[in-house]
Design brief:
Layout: E1 3-14, E2 17-28, E3 32-36, H1 43-50, E4 58-63, H2 69-73, E5 76-79, H3 91-102, H4 109-115, H5 131-143, E6 149-153, H6 161-176, E7 180-185, H7 188-194, E8 197-202, E9 205-211, H8 212-218, E10 221-225, H9 229-237, E11 242-248, E12 251-256, H10 262-271, E13 278-282, H11 286-296
Parallel strand pairs: 3-7, 3-8, 5-6, 6-7
Antiparallel strand pairs: 1-2, 1-4, 8-9, 10-12, 10-13, 11-12
Helix pairs in contact: 4-5, 5-6
The structure holds adenosine-5'-triphosphate and magnesium ion (MG).
């Protein structure tokens, strides 16, 4: 894994407001990195600083994929605010203007419009687009120069469930091409569904960072059922790595510890002669973890 961005004690104060405080983090190439936090926690300010549009009060960051700041900036596609497209011009005409300004990417107009699912509407005026389509055109504009890094600030804001799902699919699709994506969100579920890694900000401070998969696994529960639930319960109770056991509508909900997983449990039960009628893993959402993180950081 190669680091692509290193942030070291980055701080931004606006007078008395501490928008970002001593933030350090590292993003690896190919990560889909979520910056998660409630309103006003410093997400946009952080993105603004690493995009060189907000001047840090102190601290530093470095993009490790290129030499100078201006060179590395060209390798980043970003949407901090919805770019101003010309309402009466089509998607194609608008992107031609973007390519001209960026001096790059004119040859990518058709492929990016296909990628964001706007190819069918490419000749329609921007003002006739839905909010989700406008958002996808912004992403198309950010992708024009085929940057290895994409930065998005709350890309699903204001969209309906269908629009949200489309943007999520698009982000996954872009990530599958090996691009590194950094995005801010206040929606946990979004981070959980799209990101590989995340950091949680609270009042400008980092209160957690980690790997989404690992956090989900830490909170993983196993469901089992068999014909004789009482017998099953007493046998499961004897499993060495059992952390907790609950009864829930005809099933046992089990949490294991010490890295044991459902396969270990199943082997144990087979050894005890138990035939299961049901076995599944239930990944709990990041929600509880996130709420705990915010709560713990109050103490
Ligand atoms: N230009 C500015 N001048 C003064 N204060 C600012 C400025 N920009 C941001 N702030 C303050 O910095 C803090 C962090 O704001 P920021 O926009 O980074 O939060 P955010 O996490 O992006 O919030 P949201 O989820 O609402 O977009 C807030 O208290 C905000 O009022
Ligand atoms: Mg913001």
């Amino acid at each position: 894994m190669n680091s692509i961005l290193k942030i070291n004690n980055l701080t931004k104060h606006y007078g008395k407001i501490k928008a970002v405080e001593n933030l350090s983090l590292e993003v690896q190439e190919g990560n889909v990195y979520g910056i998660l936090g409630p309103n006003g926690s410093g997400k946009t300010t952080t993105l603004g600083m690493i995009l060189d549009v907000v001047k840090p009060t102190s601290g530093e960051y470095s993009w490790l994929n290129a030499g100078s700041k201006s060179q590395s900036r060209k390798k980043i596609g970003a949407i901090l605010e919805t770019p101003a497209f010309y309402p009466y011009l089509s998607a194609v005409r608008n992107l031609k203007i973007v390519a001209k300004i960026k001096e790059n990417g004119a040859e990518n107009i058709e492929p990016v419009l296909k990628q964001v699912g706007l190819f069918d509407r490419k000749d329609d005026a921007f003002k006739t687009y839905s909010l989700g389509m406008k958002q996808r055109l912004s992403i198309a504009a950010a992708l024009l120069a085929d940057p290895p890094v994409l930065i998005l600030d709350e890309p699903t804001n204001g969209l309906d469930p269908q629009g949200i799902a489309e943007i999520r699919e698009l982000i996954k699709n872009i990530a599958s091409q090996g691009k590194t994506i950094l995005f801010a969100s206040h929606i946990l579920d979004e981070v959980q569904k799209v990101c590989t890694h995340f950091t949680v900000l609270k009042s400008g401070k980092k209160v957690y960072d980690g790997n989404v998969e690992e956090v989900m696994n830490q909170n993983k529960k196993i469901e089992v059922a068999s014909e004789n639930l009482e017998e099953l319960k007493s046998i499961v109770s004897g499993f060495g790595d059992l952390e907790s056991l609950e009864n829930e509508s005809g099933k046992l909900i089990i949490k294991l510890m010490n890295g044991s997983d459902s396969i270990d449990l199943h082997k144990y039960l087979i050894d005890k002669g138990i035939v299961l009628s049901h076995l599944s893993e239930r990944k709990s959402s990041l929600e509880q973890k996130f709420l705990n993180i915010l709560k713990e950081s109050d103490d």
